[in-house]
């Protein structure tokens, strides 16, 4: 394995820590094998005793998966990584491997739907006390974390409203309460925010999103210190079988080669689109961390290296208005995925956040007019023209309603 170099990130992502086979392939090889063979019974024994480094079984280790984990370690500048089958299996493992009956878990309200479900419905069934706080309100964090807590789960920027949470402050409060801070960093990506550097203990990803970025596979990852990962998390992932497949890991490796390039283009497009959307008469509000109008704009500038490729905005006319806008689009796709190279809109109230009660949705700011916009790599002029088609239809709809 070639070692970590002193090159810059874009270079390291292409060249460093590639585990090559004896054939010296250029591109990482795809090892579609469930098992590995030993020269002797003694070698098998030494491998299981961890006295010799040898691959054993693809639920536990596989060279293609090792390559992916090494690449993610580079990106995050973390000590250790374990790749998982999906983003949710990463979040599940990060939480469960550290929890036991009687523990307390605190989470910010604005969470990805399935994460919300785990904290709201599943943890209490196991005798784990849970509480939600308004993530941007530090007083609520202080109150919730004045009692011991085993783990805290947050997202920043959050899905779908792009709330920015103060990672450093929440990490300090979590540690005072004796817990670990887990952050879902999907919206920012490791390119634009490094939570481990400001006190978070574990970073989790859905690699399905910007990392693959081409809508092909599901994947996830947990990153953090060697101590934390090796003690509980890696054994949990491997023994419960949350492992990613070598094939999906290989696709992700290919995606990561162009990750910085794609994110740069998508973020550039997002800035152009956000400025355009903000000026529309049929838009009530927009949330984009790169706009001065974002309620936590200063914190976003401090905490993130770039605002990313996700936008949320509220159109006039509620659900009907949102549907009119979305159905008038001819280029931008309607899909509940995000982070793709193709631009995508989602109506959270009727899809991703359908199961959240209407009252809770309103508390999260997810009104019926909210549209989540994942900006892709198209020519920005085509995106603006398509958005304009949506706004034109919506303008007619609003006039007819009056
Ligand atoms: C998609 C997503 C997840 C879940 O990831 P999967 O790969 O679908 O399991 C978790 N958090 C956020 C913020 C996401 O966007």
Please name the defining characteristics of this protein.
5-stranded mixed β-sheet; Aspartate Aminotransferase, domain 1; 402 residues; 7-stranded mixed β-sheet; alpha/beta; 12 strands; Aspartate Aminotransferase, domain 2; binds pyridoxal-5'-phosphate; 41% helix; 15 helices
Can you walk through the features of this model?
By secondary structure, this protein is an alpha/beta fold. The protein has 2 domains: 9-257, Type I PLP-dependent aspartate aminotransferase-like (Major domain) (Aspartate Aminotransferase, domain 2, 3-Layer(aba) Sandwich); 260-401, Aspartate Aminotransferase, domain 1, CATH 3.90.1150.10. The protein contains 15 helices and 12 strands. The protein has helices at 9-15, 41-48, 63-76, 87-96, 113-125, 138-144, 167-176, 189-192, 226-240, 246-257, 259-278, 297-303, 318-328, 358-363, 380-401; strands spanning 80-84, 104-108, 129-133, 151-155, 180-184, 202-206, 220-224, 283-287, 310-315, 333-334, 344-346, 370-374. The strands form 2 sheets. The protein has a 7-stranded mixed sheet, with helices on both faces. Strands 8-9-12-11-10 form a 5-stranded mixed sheet. Helix 3 (63-76) packs parallel to helix 10 (246-257) and helix 11 runs parallel beside helix 15 (380-401). 49% of the residues are buried. The mean pLDDT is 95. The structure holds pyridoxal-5'-phosphate (PLP). The site of pyridoxal-5'-phosphate has 14 residues, from helix 4.
């Amino acid at each position: 394995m070639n070692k970590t170099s002193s090159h810059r990130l874009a270079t390291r992502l292409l060249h460093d820590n590639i585990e090559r086979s004896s054939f010296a392939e250029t591109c990482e090889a795809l090892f579609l094998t469930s098992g590995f063979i030993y020269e002797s019974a003694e070698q098998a024994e030494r491998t299981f005793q961890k006295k010799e480094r040898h691959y054993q079984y693809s639920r536990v280790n596989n060279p293609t998966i090792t390559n992916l984990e090494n690449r993610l370690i580079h990106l995050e500048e973390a000590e250790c990584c374990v790749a998982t089958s999906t983003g949710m299996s990463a979040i599940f493992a990060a939480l469960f491997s550290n929890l036991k009956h009687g523990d307390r878990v605190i989470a910010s309200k604005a969470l990805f739907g399935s994460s919300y479900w785990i904290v709201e419905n599943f943890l209490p069934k196991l005798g784990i006390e849970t509480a939600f706080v308004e993530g941007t309100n530090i007083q609520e964090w202080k109150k919730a974390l004045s009692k011991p807590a085993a783990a805290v789960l947050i997202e920043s920027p959050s899905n779908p409203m792009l709330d920015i949470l103060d990672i450093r402050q929440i990490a300090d409060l979590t540690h005072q309460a004796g817990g670990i801070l887990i952050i879902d960093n999907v919206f920012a990506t490791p390119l634009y925010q490094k939570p481990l550097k400001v006190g978070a203990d574990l970073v989790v990803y859905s690699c399905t999103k910007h990392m693959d970025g081409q809508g092909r596979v599901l994947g996830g990852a947990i990153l953090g210190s060697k101590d934390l990962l090796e003690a509980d998390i890696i054994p949990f992932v491997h023994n419960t079988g949350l492992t990613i497949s070598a094939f999906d890991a290989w696709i992700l490796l290919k995606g990561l080669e162009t990750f910085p390039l794609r994110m740069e283009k998508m973020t550039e497009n997002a800035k152009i689109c956000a400025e355009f959307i903000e000026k529309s008469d049929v838009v009530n509000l927009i949330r984009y961390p790169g706009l001065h109008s974002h309620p936590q704009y200063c914190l976003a500038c401090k905490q993130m290296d770039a605002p990313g490729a996700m936008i949320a905005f509220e159109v006039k006319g509620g659900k009907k208005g949102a549907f009119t806008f979305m159905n008038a689009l001819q280029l931008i796709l309607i899909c509940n995925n995000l982070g793709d190279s193709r631009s995508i809109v989602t109506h959270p109230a009727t899809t991703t956040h359908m199961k959240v009660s209407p009252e809770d949705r309103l508390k999260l700011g997810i009104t019926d007019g909210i549209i989540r916009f994942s900006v892709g790599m198209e020519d920005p002029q085509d995106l603006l023209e398509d958005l304009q088609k949506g706004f034109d239809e919506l303008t007619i709809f609003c006039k007819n309603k009056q």
